[in-house]
Every structure is written in structure tokens, then in C-alpha cells.
Amino acid sequence: MDHEKIYTAMEKGHKGREPKSQHLDIRLIHEVHTVHYEIHELKLGDKWKKNKELKRFDPECLLAISYGAKFVLDYWVFLFEDKESCQLWHQGLNHIKYESEHSSYAVLVDKWIKKQFYSIACPESFTVTIKQMKPFVQTTLQYKVTSSILQEISEGELDLKMFVEAYRRLLNLSELAVARFSRYLSNNDRLSFNDFHRFMIECQGDEIAQNREEFSEFLRRYLREYDLTRDVPEPWVSVDEFIDYLYSNENSILDPENSKVVQDMTRPLAHYWIASSHNTFLT
Predict the structure, then answer these.
(1) Domains within the chain, CATH numbers bracketed
(2) pLDDT in tens, 121-138
(3) What gap in Å lies between CA 199 and CA 183, rounded to an integer?
(4) How far apart are CA 7 and CA 54, in angstroms?
(5) Whole-model pTM?
């Protein structure tokens, strides 16, 4: 990719200037398409034809990335030397985006904690002091804490492992699990296979727990993100893993089939559900 030809002017709101950031969080990416695809397949020709600069380049060599956390998305558009390179980046970014969207809850939490750690860690030592830890806890975790409590958790500087342990101790989710689900904890720090199976039947009413073999395969598949050595017929689950499960997609009531977006726009209007804001409705 020719870095001198990165088309920064298309980053909305920053025309003619360098983009505010040279880094883009993968989680903020909504779509990655070639401009050729957007013009000919999505029929968004008017969107791109308005820009005189873009018309000078082959649309098959332009890669458009829409991103953002707001209703109106921003764009980065990259110019490649040839369409083969553009296609490779298109495929690669979509693959990374897919992996990010379909990561397990455990992986997402692990990535998030690491991101928070490295954002505040001293670049020379890759450690975090108690002084740096306090704003993170109060602002990011929204948890009121005194310096004395932080000193009880850890003294001096924290490396990544110590930072993760401090994070978990502050959230105190393990004690909450013990208090709320004690009847499913034959051991205070873990659930046996039978404990978890009973929880799924009695509390969750989950259909997958009706078949013991299917539930075993389901649990083993879930635990592969944590520990491959527990790929056995009746694996146990730690309290932290149990808490992670409660927040994971595997425990969602949403049928994954309902998350699929169908791009077919050839059917009658009555076949579609249209999401509109209050302001859109009024207009």
C-alpha cells in the first residue's frame, strides 16, 4: 500500500487535513468494501461521484472503511497500487472483523483488559502504579475506591498479570456468585459438571441441557477458550468462568438466526422491518 496516497481527505469532517488518529479500533468498523462494489452492487454511485478527487482513481483500487460509534459514520478510504492488493486487504480486514465479532466473551474481556492496561502503563517498564490505577478504577470501572483499598490489593507497581488480578478482585464477582448460586457450588471455587448441568436445567431451563451428551459437547466447546486440558466428557468450571458464561453470547436469549442481515432488496416492502428514529418518523 502506498502510504503517500492514503486518501485522508475522505475521513469525514477532516477534509484537507491529516486524520485525528492513525489507529482504528477494529470493533468500530461497520463495513469494508471497495468503492467499485459500493458503486455497482450497493448502488451508492452518487455518494462517491460527488468527490472530484476520487474520480481520478480506479474504484477497484479504492478501499472504503466505514467506522464509528455514532449514527453518522466516518470513513477512511485507502488507495492501492493495484486491485489485487486492494482485494487482499478487503478480505483480510473482513476476516479480522468477523473474528472480532465472533470472539468468545472470555477473549473479548481479555482483549479489553489488555487494552486498558497498555493504555495507562508506563512504556518503559510496562507496569502500572497505584496512582495510575485509581483514575482507571473510578472513571472506566465507575467504582469509587480509596487509595488505601488499592494498596491492600497490590503494593508498588503492577504488571499485566497483577493488573488482571486486581481488576477481578475489585469487581468482586466471585463472591457475588457464591452468595447467589451457592447451592450449585459443591466447591467454593468451582462448579462440577453435574452442578453446572443442574443450574442449566433448574435456573435457565435451557433446552440443550435436556440431552446430557449434547450439553457435554456444548460445555467442552465453550471451555476450549480457557483450557484445552478440560476437553473431557464431564469438565468442571471455575467460578470466574461461570460468571463469564452468564455474560457470554452462549447464554443469550437471542436466536443467532435473527442477527443475520439479508441484503436482498427485491422483495415487497411488507416483507421488511424498518427501523426508524422518532425524528425520521415525523418527517
Answers:
(1) 3-101 (2.30.29), 105-171 (1.10.238), 181-254 (1.10.238)
(2) 888 888 998 888 888 888
(3) 9
(4) 9
(5) 0.62
